[in-house]
Amino acid sequence: MTDPAAPTVTAILLAGSRPVPDPLAQAAGVAAKPLVPVAGIAMIDYPARALVAHPAIARVLILTQSPDLFTGTPATAWLADHPKVAFETSGAGIASSLLALMDRADLPFPLLLTTADHVLLDSAMLDQFIAQATGADIAVAMVERDTLLARYPASRRTWLKFRDGWWSGANIFWFGSAKARPVIALWQDVEQDRKKGWKILAAFGPFALIGAALRLLTLRGGIARIGRRFGLVARLVAMDKAEACIDADKAEDVALIESILASRA
């Protein structure tokens, strides 16, 4: 369980739309990807309910270009009435919107960021992430390939190769203090290439790129080294649950998620 001394957390749930039409939303006939039904329920409903139910999370900010898409849809209208939930209109990009939120006096740190397509997010994942991220200025959740393939050998992810294995992002981030701002500003510069691992590594400097290419770095050590470059504590949270890196990005992901939800039921 989460340490009772853990700080009160503000969760930011990304529910925006990209400039190009989303194939899942088009196939489902809905206005935005977070409204795509997964096992008959809008996908945003799953992470939103996990977040509002967690005792360490004080409030949930849903960041989207169009709050009315959710408040005006019966399946998600409960979000507008929930005492923990508020909507924020996003700007041109995730990083710029996050930097604007950090400037607000009514949003104390720490901030936990996740996405509306993180359908399998649950209390155990949040327990682990919050417990291990607490004390860091910035933390990122990742899943090692063996952890995923041991449970779901057919699942396909985007992997980054390091000395300590192959890693995939789990779409959970921690910003523990204002020291995280320079990293987010860098994220803003490479935001359009966030799926292209080498471009992101190169933005952190040649040592990170060469170290990854030659497998000189462990991911944990590399993240800590990047943190020291920016004068902050940066931390990897290696998630225990394989499901932490399965997001609803493609039709095959939705099919896998629905089978996992059915097995849980």
Task: Return the structural class.
Answer: alpha/beta
Average pLDDT works out at 87
Based on DSSP secondary structure assignment, what is the total number of beta strands?
10
CATH architecture: Alpha-Beta Complex
Oligomer: single chain
CATH class annotation: Alpha Beta
Tally the helices.
12
Low-confidence stretches: none
Largest sheet: 8 strands, mixed
CATH topology: Spore Coat Polysaccharide Biosynthesis Protein SpsA, Chain A
**How big a fraction of the residues is strand?**
15-25%
Order of helices and strands: EHEEHEHHEHEHEHEEHHHHEH
Shape: globular
> Can you tell me the CATH superfamily?
Spore Coat Polysaccharide Biosynthesis Protein SpsA, Chain A
Number of domains: 1
Q: In percent, how helical is the residue content? A: 25-40%
Q: End-to-end distance, in Å?
A: 23 Å
Rounded to an integer in angstroms, the radius of gyration calculated over CA atoms is 18 Å
Draw up the topology in text.
Layout: E1 9-14, H1 23-28, E2 37-38, E3 41-42, H2 45-53, E4 57-64, H3 68-71, H4 78-81, E5 85-89, H5 94-102, E6 111-115, H6 123-133, E7 138-144, H7 145-151, E8 160-162, E9 165-175, H8 181-190, H9 197-203, H10 206-213, H11 219-229, E10 234-238, H12 251-264
Parallel strand pairs: 1-4, 1-6, 4-5, 7-10
Antiparallel strand pairs: 2-3, 6-9, 7-9, 8-9
